[in-house]
Amino acid sequence: AKAAYEQLNEQLSTELPQLIDLRVPYLDPTFEALVKIQLRFCAEAYSRMAQVQQYLDADTRDQYAEGQLDARVEQVLQEIRELSISGTV
Fold it and tell me: Measured between alpha carbons, how far is 5 from 37 in angstroms, rounded to an integer?
């Protein structure tokens, strides 16, 4: 058991600094790619939402811009949650 511990300890002592050194060439570019993907997703979603808005009437667009539409959607969702679909006979 002691030999196994010493072997693993030696291996960790050797490999952990190497792993930490890989942080810059591996993890930093990966994180940067994640941020760029999120930016691309948000830009695409914003663009699609802008395209959809042109089909909405002016009143609905105004409600959306003022944040009232979100409240109305939440109200309708709450009404749906409160529905009883397990009727009793």
Answer: 43
